[in-house]
Amino acid sequence: MEDKKFKSVKQIINENQMNKKEYWENEMRNDTKTDLFKLINTLDNADDINLVKEMLMTRSKSLAKKTKLGLMVGDEVIISGSNRINSGKIIKINRTKAIINCYDKTIKDMVTYHVPFSMIRKVVNNG
């Protein structure tokens, strides 16, 4: 049995079917998350914590704006939130939210959601 610690980058990439760029981005992201977690745990007063919260909100808003610019009416999207994931189609784009048509399995009918851009991911078709 092969020990996972001694697998090469090439073996890991082949097993996970990702390219080298994706592999290194994933590794860097994991290292960054660990470092960020350690830094947050060093905060020792409310002012610093509030500053970090403000910075995160600003970043979240800028990512939502970037998402909005990449969306168009008719795009297939994935909505994440409320501990479930729905997919649907954009029927209208407003200033802060998109109106999305989704199929609701519980009522077995189409429903319309007003969804903030921070909860929307565009479906990429590889074809």
Task: Write up what this structure looks like.
The chain is α+β, with helices and mostly antiparallel strands and 127 residues long. It has 2 domains: 4-69, no CATH class; 76-122. The chain has helices at 9-16, 20-41, 46-69, and strands spanning 76-81, 84-93, 97-104, 109-116, 120-122. A 5-stranded antiparallel sheet has the order 4-3-2-1-5. It is extended, with a radius of gyration of 20 Å. The chain starts with 8 loop residues before the first helix and ends in a 5-residue tail after the last strand. The mean pLDDT is 81.
Quick structural summary:
By secondary structure, this protein is α+β, with helices and mostly antiparallel strands. The chain has 3 helices and 5 strands, in the order H-H-H-E-E-E-E-E. The mean pLDDT is 81.
Write the layout of secondary structure elements.
Elements: H1 9-16, H2 20-41, H3 46-69, E1 76-81, E2 84-93, E3 97-104, E4 109-116, E5 120-122
Antiparallel strand pairs: 1-2, 1-5, 2-3, 3-4
CA gyration radius, whole angstroms: 20 Å
Shape: extended
Which bin fits the share of residues in helices?
A: 40-55%
Number of strands: 5
What is the topology, as strand order, of the major beta sheet? 4-3-2-1-5
Mean pLDDT over all positions: 81
Beta-strand content estimate: 25-35%
- Residue ranges: pLDDT <50 for 5 or more in a row? none
Distance between the termini: 38 Å
How many discrete domains?
2
Q: In terms of structural class, how would the helical and strand content be classed?
A: alpha+beta
How many helices does DSSP assign? 3
Q: Element order, helices and strands?
A: HHHEEEEE
- Largest sheet: number of strands, sense, barrel closure: 5 strands, antiparallel
